[in-house]
Amino acid sequence: MYMNTRVLEHLLSIPALSVLSFMDDERKRVGITDMPETDHDNYWYLPGNIPVCLVAHVDTVRDEYKWRGKKKKGKYVFDPIDLVFERGIYKNKSGILGADDRAGCYVLWYYMLQGENKPHVLFTNHEESGGQGVKAFLREYDNMLKMSDIRLFIEIDRRGVSEYVTYNTIPNEVHKYVKSFGFHEGMGSFSDIMYLTQDTGIPSVNLSAGYYNEHSSREMLCVDELRLTVERIDLMLSDPIDQRYPVVERSRSMSSSSYWDNDSWDEQVGYMTTLGRLVCMKCGEKITDEDTDPVYDILYEDEVYDSDYCEECGDPLLPLTFEGGLTDDDDKEETSGIELLTKRIHPVAV
User: Fold this and answer.
1) Which of 11, 18, 82, 333 is buried deepest, with most CB atoms within 10 A?
2) CA distances to 105, 215, 294 from 264, in Å
3) What is the pTM of this model?
C-alpha cells in the first residue's frame, strides 16, 4: 500500500480545526457530493456504504492542552513542528509529534477517498480532554447511528502494532472477527469510542496506529506499522462482520488494568489524589500539589491549568500511577521522573 507522506506530514503539522477543514476541502476536490454532518468544532461525519464506521480524533495533547505552550505577556507561544523522518520513523525535534491521533486521521482520509465503496468516517475533537466532541455528536445523531447499517466502530488510536483494545464488554463474535485479521487483544484505558458503544449499543474496537511514547516529546510514529494496520483494515472492509452483534453490557470493560475501568470512579480519583504525581516527561521535574487533583483537571477541563506543564522546559506534566504501590525508593527526592518512568510507573491514559 502506498503511503502519501505529503498528506501525513501535513496532518501532523496543522491545528485540530484545520484537520476538519482539510477533510472538507479534500471531499470537494475529489467530487464527493455527500455532505458531512459537522458543527465545525466537535465532529465531522461522512456516511459510507460499508457497514463499518472508522473513527479518529483530530486533537492532540500538543494543541489541546497547550502543554508545549510557554506564556509570554499572557499569551501562549508554541514551539514549531520540526518533523524528522529517519529509518521509517517520524519524530518532532521540537516536542510532541501528535501522531496520537493524526495517524488515525490519515487512515480516515485514505478511506474517505476510496471511490464509491467506502466506510462511514467520523472525526471527533477533544478526545484528549474527556471525549467532549463525540458526546456532542451523540447528542445530535445517536438515533441516526442506531438506525444506520453500522455494525462496528473501528477507531485507529492505539499505540504499538497489531493490537486491539475495547472499553466495553463486547460480544465474543466481535473478538473472534477482529482476531481473525491478525490483531491480538491488549489492555487500554480510554478512547472516545467507549461513549459510542455506551450510547448506541454498537460494538467498537480500537486498533494500533504505529505510534509510541504518546503525550511526550519522545513520541514517534513507525510508518510501516501504520501501513500494516491499513492493509488489515482493507481486508476487514472487504469482508465486514456479518451482523450487528448488540452490546448488552455497555459499561466500561473490566479487562483493562487501568484505573479508568474501576467500578467506583470517585474511589479511584481519591486514590490518584493520594498517590498521584505530576512528572515532566523531559527533564524529570516532579510536581506534588495537595490542592490540585491532576486527574480531574485533565479529564474534565477544557484547558489545563498552568501547573500541568513544566515551567522549566514546557514539556507535559503527566499524572502517573504506581503499579504495586509506593516504596521508600519512590519517595526519595533524588529520584527523577525519567528514572521513575523506567521502573514501575506508566501514564494513566493509554
Assistant:
1) 11
2) 33, 26, 18
3) 0.73
Closest to 257 (Cα-Cα) out of 318, 187, 305: 187
Q: How far is residue 315 from each of residues 61, 92, 286, measured CA to CA in Å?
A: 11, 13, 12
Fill in the amino acid letter for 126.
H
Answer whether 221's CB lies under 8 Å from 210's CB: yes
Instruction: Give the confidence band of 273 by pLDDT, cuts at 50, 70, 90.
Output: very low
Domains identified in the chain and CATH numbers: 5-238 (3.40.630.10), 262-347 (no CATH)
Top pLDDT among 291 and 317 is at 317
Q: Which residues contact 34 (CB under 8 A, 6 or more apart)?
A: 27, 46, 47
* Three cell numbers written together for 147: 438506525
Q: Which residues of 186-208 are buried (b: 16+ CB within 10 A; e: fewer)?
A: bebbbbbbbbbbbbbbbbbbbbb
For 147, counting Cβ atoms within 10 Å of its Cβ (0-12 exposed, 13-18 middle, 19+ buried), the class is exposed
CA distances from 296 to 6, 116, 271 (A): 38, 44, 12
In angstroms, the CA 143 to CA 229 distance is 30
Q: DSSP labels for 258-274?
A: SGGG-S-HHHHHHHHHH
How many CB atoms are closer than 10 A to CB 235?
Answer: 11
Closest CA to 55 of 129, 150, 184, 175: 150
pLDDT tens for 59-113 read 998 765 444 455 555 555 555 689 999 999 999 998 899 999 999 999 999 999 9
Measured distance CA(208)–CA(281) in Å, rounded? 23
Question: What's the distance, Cα to Cα, between the start and end of the chain in Å?
Answer: 28
